[in-house]
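Methods — Computational structure assignment.
A single polypeptide chain was analysed. Its primary sequence is given first, followed by the predicted tertiary structure written as C-alpha cells.
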Amino acid sequence: MKHIKAKNVLPEDVIKIIQEYIDGDYIYIPRKNSNQKSWGEKNGIKEELKNRNIEIFNRFIQGITIKGLAQEYYLSEQSIRRIVNHENTLRS
C-alpha cells in the first residue's frame, strides 16, 4: 500500500478537520464496500490458482493418479481430491 499526501488529494478544510483528531500520524482510510476486492484479485493469485486447479482436474481426467498429482504440485492427496471434486461439481 502506498502513501498519498493528504494535501495532494484533500481540500484544506477537510485536512484541518482530520488534524483535530489525528495530527501528524498515519491514518488508514478503508475502501468503500462497493470497491473492495476479494482475496487474490489485486495480485492475480486467485486467477493463478483457478488455472492450476483446472490443470490438475484435466490431468486427473487424463489418468494421472491423485498420488502423482500430489507429488507434482506439492499438495496433499486430500487437497488434490478436494480440487478434483470441486472442478467436477462445476462441470456437472
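Note: The chain has a mean pLDDT of 89.
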